[in-house]
User: What shape does this take?
Amino acid sequence: MKRKNFLWILPYFPYPILSGGNVRVFNLIKHLSEDYDIHLISFIEEGVSDDDINEVSKYCASLKTVRREQREGPLPMIFQCYDTLAMREALRDALKGKYAFVQIDFLTMAHYARLVRELTRAPLVFTEHDVSWLDFEKCFHNRHLDERARYAEWVRIVKEADKLYDLFDLVITVSERDAEIISGRYPGKRVAAVPTGTDCTHYAYKEPADNTDLIYTGHYVHYPNVDAVNYILKKILPAVEKKIPGIKFYIAGSAGEKVFGNLNKENIIVTGTVDNLLDSLRLAGIFVAPVTMGIGIRGKILEAMAAGLPVVTTSTGAEGIGGEPGVHLLTSDSPEGFAAEVIKLASDKNLRRELSANGRKFVEEKYDWSKRAEELKKIYAGL
Assistant: This one.
């Protein structure tokens, strides 16, 4: 296949891998670079090193990073905080070139579609990482505001997004359910689902041992992860401890030490940012994910299943994955039911082994990143 080039626009630098969005973007960059010349423009946050930039550069034909500096403006807050003169200038310069298509990831960057449309006739692709913004109750944006102010801002987000969606030639979603939601909202819009995946080679399988300690992983700058951990601490762990004294709960992932560092004690361990999340997963025997916000596939659950950890989650957490409750994972939406499932799993080694083996096989067959990249290449070819 003749190599094509495309411009990829991101709000977060994809390395180091600290969040689910980073996992998806970095793995797709690696696999897509086999057939495409990728020209990447991304905002860059504090903590990204030259080595991190070099790691991504290996897979890009060109790479431009932009420091994010907020400025006043009329856009809804989630757009305005990613609208900078430096990014606009970088895009104007990049769009002097010719591309097979231009791709924008994440709703926070969608407003740049107007500028792209002004400067090129290349097809415009948008990757929608989370459609929860369409539901006020599930929307995680602006949770620092009181309910009245958050609702007013949510209305502004939806109105602006409706205008922006008219500009996209193709919308890629991270789950089949997300694709259904977007198609229902925007009839006639071309929508394709390329579900989130995982790296089955990196997350090597290990059969469950006698360890029944609990773990949750996440990027704790992202509010839904903070909410999930608080749910575990307040509503799940106390009930489990009554039946299983001494059980430990690991809070693993980036910025965990900043949010939960004061909770470190004998049975609650905050690992903070780690170089290899697999090392953290090996500390525990059961992955707990009482996710109540957001929509789509949770990469953290796929990683846990790939590594061999049996999973207990909610219907929201399991949504989009397609696994069968009781076969690939366990689910419950009530605190009492969730705690009961954890206790049942911790008390039954055979059940842990069964869910572990079934979960790994399921992820291998459906969610490895190499398969996801091939699906995306076929979709790009259709442009």
Q: What stands out?
A: The first strand starts at residue 4 and ends at 10. Residues 111 and 163 are 9 Å apart (CA to CA).
